[in-house]
Amino acid sequence: MRRRYLYVSLVLILFVCCHIILFGLVPDSATFPSNDVSALGERIDQLQRILDEQARNSARLKAFVDIELRKLRDLTTTTTTIASSPTSLTTSDVTTKSPAANANAQNQPPIAVLVFACNRPAAITYHVSKLLRYRPSAVQFPVVISQDCDSIPVADAVRAFGSNISYIKHESAQKAGIQVPSNHAQYASYYMIARHYKLALTHVFEKLNFSAAIITEDDLDIAEDFFEYFGATRPLLDSDRSLMCVSAWNDNGKAGLIDANATELLYRSDFFSGLGWMLTRRLWEELSPIWPAGFWDDWLRDPARRQNRACIRPEIPRTSMTNQGKVGASQGLFFSKHLIKIKLNERPFSFTQANLSYLLQDRYDADFINNVYASREVTLEQLQNQTTSADSKALEAVRLTYTSAKEFSGIAAKLQLMVDFKAGVPRTAYRGVVSCFVNNTRVFIAPPRSWTSYDPSWTGPPDIIEG
Ligand SMILES: *[C@@H]1O[C@H](CO)[C@@H](O)[C@H](O)[C@H]1NC(C)=O
Ligand SMILES: *[C@@H]1O[C@H](CO)[C@@H](O)[C@H](O)[C@H]1NC(C)=O
Ligand SMILES: *[C@@H]1O[C@H](CO)[C@@H](O)[C@H](O)[C@H]1NC(C)=O
Ligand SMILES: *[C@@H]1O[C@H](CO)[C@@H](O)[C@H](O)[C@H]1NC(C)=O
Ligand SMILES: *[C@@H]1O[C@H](CO)[C@@H](O)[C@H](O)[C@H]1NC(C)=O
Ligand SMILES: *[C@@H]1O[C@H](CO)[C@@H](O)[C@H](O)[C@H]1NC(C)=O
Question: Which chain regions cross the lipid bilayer (predicted)?
């Protein structure tokens, strides 16, 4: 950066010197022999040529200086793509030509894996090693690591991956001096995160021109079939406009709440869970102009943004949390009670070989609703009576009914499910229905069949605090 400033200073000095020299060449009018008209004409022509030449030089110099200044401004005020020594990072691929123009053997457009990093070197090393170990193709899943904080150990950890990844370093939020409302001083990290998302997504979609991206964070672990999952669900986002994203996370994906055999099972969900999720450039083009200064995930869950769209989520999570997450933006208690207990899938499933058309809204909604309301309605007591005596075989599906926020949270608490709502939507719910699997029984926690929409005034119990 210092070298850049020096360079631009030199250019400016050169620019000024040229003007002085050129003006110096213009003879003083007092030396003109005023009585020699033809000589005077010649002098005027000569003067005109000198001035024209000077104007051309000035315009060239000015254009040159403008370009250099613009480059410098880009580097300092927006983002910096750091290329270290030529042997380690090769960012030339991502900065000069669009990798999105490449296509893999199956003619699938590549999906960027955008990794958010800040100040946790051990986390980024573990996370990226996992991504590189499991990704089937570097062409189909280019990894782009985006760093906000100025942590040198993280930059070093990233460089160690050499040309297997590309790296973008933004001017840190601290240096950029972000605006945080005074009553939100304790939430400054949420403003930094929202700013980082905006910068990184702009880079991936607007500069690199990818048509889809998977967003991960350095504290996530991934399942072996993580890329199978996203690769296979990618086309659904194009063919079904009622889908907003695909997420690898299941908010109720704890051991004892999921069917460990159902490696193939996917759902539609009205709850945006994030934590390893995929979006298309189409969605980014919609969100980018209105992107918020803070709390972007709750902002996205607002009915005004979600617009009744759903995400795909798995029964068995394809992301989980590593211990690195404990020191993140989320509250410690939420981490130890919930996040760390989410169970990663251990038996890979070949999603790309499966027919996932059942997830398209046209087919899914009617089947899902029929399935849910065809199940036998039971009370919590009846469920407990049934399930305590279960052997290892899956039993008939049952349904528990709720008609209020309090009733939902009460049932959820008994079953150890997440009890809270965001914008009126319970975690993992689709059309109000939360599905789980306890004691070998598929259990639907469902509103009455006459349900039509969520009530944003349904909010979580006050003791649930999270990040
Ligand atoms: C990059 O990936 C290749 C092939 O997977 C591997 O051999 C190489 O060691 C990796 N380089 C780094 C710096 O991780
Ligand atoms: C960006 O990608 C789209 C296809 O997704 C392509 O039509 C378009 O030409 C690309 N734009 C640039 C500038 O490469
Ligand atoms: C996927 O399943 C649907 C519905 O069963 C069927 O109509 C469609 O042909 C199947 N697609 C493929 C490629 O098998
Ligand atoms: C549960 O089982 C016990 C003993 O088998 C029985 O007495 C009780 O009535 C049952 N409760 C319900 C709600 O079915
Ligand atoms: C599941 O079974 C255990 C005992 O095997 C029992 O204590 C528990 O209440 C049951 N859970 C539910 C939700 O019925
Ligand atoms: C899970 O699979 C195992 C082995 O295939 C089987 O014995 C068991 O009954 C299955 N459990 C459920 C709940 O389907």
Answer: 5-26
- Identify whether the C-beta of residue 249 lies closer than 8 Å to the C-beta of residue 230: no
What secondary structure letter does DSSP report for 202? I
The pick from 393, 440, 443 for probing ligand 6's pocket by mutation, whose C-beta has the most ligand atoms within 8 angstroms, reads 393
Tell whether the torsion through CA atoms of 428, 433, 435 and 438 is positive or negative.
positive
Q: Which protein residue has the closest C-alpha to ligand 5 atom 12?
A: 384
In this structure, the number of other CB atoms found within 10 A of the CB of residue 62 comes to 11
Q: Is residue 164 in contact with ligand 1, taking CB distance under 6 Å?
A: yes
Q: How many residues does the chain have?
A: 467
Nearest to 416 by CA among 427, 404, 405, 430: 427
Q: How far apart are CA 259 and CA 427, in angstroms?
A: 18
Q: Radius of gyration of the chain from Cα atoms?
A: 30
Ligand 1 atom at minimal distance to the Cα of residue 160: 13
Cα(207) to centroid(ligand 2), Å? 10
Residue entry with tokens 């390893």: 276
Question: Who's near 158: CB < 8 A, 6+ residues apart?
Answer: 117, 124, 128, 145, 147, 165, 167
Is the distance from the beta carbon of residue 3 to the nearest atom of ligand 6 less than 6 Å? no
State what percent of residues in the chain have pLDDT above 90.
Answer: 64
The CATH number assigned to the domain with range 92-361 reads 3.90.550.10
Catalytic-residue membership of 93 = no
| Fold designation for 367-446 | 2,3-Dihydroxybiphenyl 1,2-Dioxygenase; domain 1 (3.10.180)
Point out the ligand nearest to the CA of residue 353: 3
- 393 CA distance to ligand 6 middle (Å): 6
Which range of 87-101, 291-305, 451-465 scores highest in mean pLDDT? It is: 291-305
User: Domain extents for the chain?
Assistant: 2-78, 92-361, 367-446
Percentages of the chain per state (helix, strand, coil), in multiples of 5: 45, 15, 35
Q: In this predicted model, what pLDDT tens digit does every residue of 16-61 receive, in sequence order?
A: 444 444 444 444 443 444 455 566 566 656 766 655 666 555 544 4
User: Contact 280/211 with Cβ under 8 angstroms?
Assistant: yes
